[in-house]
Amino acid sequence: MNQIDLTNSRQPLQVVLVQPRRRWVFLLLLLLLGGSFCLNLLLAVVCADYVKDQTPPNEKFHSGEVLAKDKIARIVTDFTIMPPHTKRFLDTIDHIQKQDDVKGVVLVIDSPGGLVSDSHEIYYRLKKLSETKPISVSMKGIAASGGYYIAMGAGAGAPIYAEPTTWTGSIGVIMPRYDISKLADQYGVKSDSLTTGPLKDTLNPFKELTEEDRKVWMEILDDSFKRFLTVIDEGRENLTMEQIRALATGQIYTSGQAIANGLVDKIGYEDDVIKDLKEKLGLTSVRVVNYEHPKSFAESLLGAEALNPPVDPLSQLINASVPRAMYLFGGPGTSGRSN
User: Fold this and answer.
1) Distance set, CA 114 to CA 51, 121, 282, 327 (Å)
2) Under DSSP, is residue 139 helix (H, G, I), strand (E, B) or coil?
3) CA dihedral defined by 149, 150, 155, 156, rounded to 10 degrees?
4) C-alpha angle 40/41/42, rounded to 5°?
5) Active-site entry in 136, 138, 145, 170
6) Where are the alpha helices (DSSP H) in the chain?
7) What is the C-alpha to C-alpha distance for residues 40 and 286, in angstroms, rounded to an integer?
8) Which CATH superfamily, name and number, covers 59-174+238-293+324-328?
9) Are the CB atoms for 196 and 168 separated by under 8 Å?
10) Strands 266-267 and 71-77
11) What region, left, alpha or beta, does residue 62 occupy, with left being phi > 0 and alpha being psi -120 to 50 degrees?
């Protein structure tokens, strides 16, 4: 192999340097490409979620006869009743309402309850649905507080079944609140919020609740409590208001106790509910179906945890003072199952 003797070369050695301007151009192009990618990803998320929201839930075969023309819809509440689950559940109700081949509905409940407003909205929409499609209720592990509340949406006279190990009841309202005022005093922290009125800052966790504060909020809770009692009174023809009030202590009841107190009608499993509803509808063959919503782009990309993103400590502190009236068994921190 030939070697070049640089010492005898008449040509001067040239060193080529990358000019700083070219490096900046390269970096600028890289930033533009990265920005374009992020923008397109954002647009894809927005468009995908918009399309998802406009798409009706997917029908899935559950049981019965695959080729049967008539259907029984199975809708499941297996979550704490709050966003984002509430909207999907309501969308499912709306979809079922439009399906002429759906002759009846089995409402499956496995929930500790949730927000007052969401529980009532689901109850209201179920009651509207029950006017055209008979609903039977199947309670599983737990159907308490808001879980029992939405069962009343099946309408007066609708059969309510509980499994042998079901817990139900817990009739009442809770508004979670934490008082950390003494802890704050110990560390020299005090609340100094600027407000336009004496009751604007009533649930501040850094302050003790005054008698005036308590009176105001108890009137609000009593309104939700009375609504709960009225909903049961309308949904359970076998119970008087006096009997309902006696049961509405917040106590949880076993299925046997619930039967004895008239809160449910029968001990049975979901198969029994479907069988009895099929006979009630006079159907010889039926297809039982579920409805599932398409996953959002974020759920597909990040998994189920996208529904429950981590909450930073500051947000938790701020949220501690946000009033949330709840028909909930188990107190604050109770978590439901995500579907």
Assistant:
1) 28, 12, 36, 5
2) strand
3) -20
4) 90
5) 145
6) 20-54, 85-97, 116-130, 146-151, 181-186, 211-235, 241-247, 255-260, 270-281, 297-302, 313-319
7) 46
8) 2-enoyl-CoA Hydratase; Chain A, domain 1 (3.90.226.10)
9) no
10) unpaired
11) alpha
- The angle at the Cα of 115, spanning 109 to 117, to the nearest 5 degrees, equals 105
The DSSP symbol for 117 reads H
Q: Is 335 a catalytic residue?
A: no
| Cα dist from 79 to 133, 148, 251, whole Å | 24, 13, 21
Instruction: Give pTM, 2 decimals.
Output: 0.78
pLDDT recorded at residue 215: 94
Place of tokens 């990618």: 37
Residue 134's identity, in one-letter code, is: P
How many angstroms separate the CA atoms of 50 and 212, rounded?
Answer: 46
SS3 303: coil
Q: Which residues pair with 75 in a beta bridge?
A: 107
Question: Whole-angstrom Cα distance, residue 324 to residue 175?
Answer: 6
Among 60, 69, 200, 266, the one annotated catalytic: 200
Is 226 known to be catalytic?
Answer: no
Q: How many CB atoms lie within 10 A of CB 95?
A: 17
Per-residue model confidence as pLDDT tens for the chain (339 residues): 455 454 555 555 554 544 556 667 667 677 767 666 666 555 555 454 444 455 788 999 999 999 999 999 999 999 999 998 999 999 999 999 999 999 999 999 999 999 999 999 999 999 999 999 999 999 999 999 999 999 999 999 999 999 999 999 999 999 888 888 888 778 888 878 888 888 888 887 888 888 998 999 999 999 999 999 999 999 999 999 999 999 999 999 999 999 999 999 999 999 999 999 999 999 999 999 999 877 655 545 555 444 554 544 545 555 555 678 899 987 554 444 433
Q: From CA 278, how far away is CA 172, in angstroms rounded? A: 34
Amino acid symbol at 312? D
Q: Using N-to-C axis directions, what is the helix angle for 85-97 and 116-130, rounded to 10°? A: 10
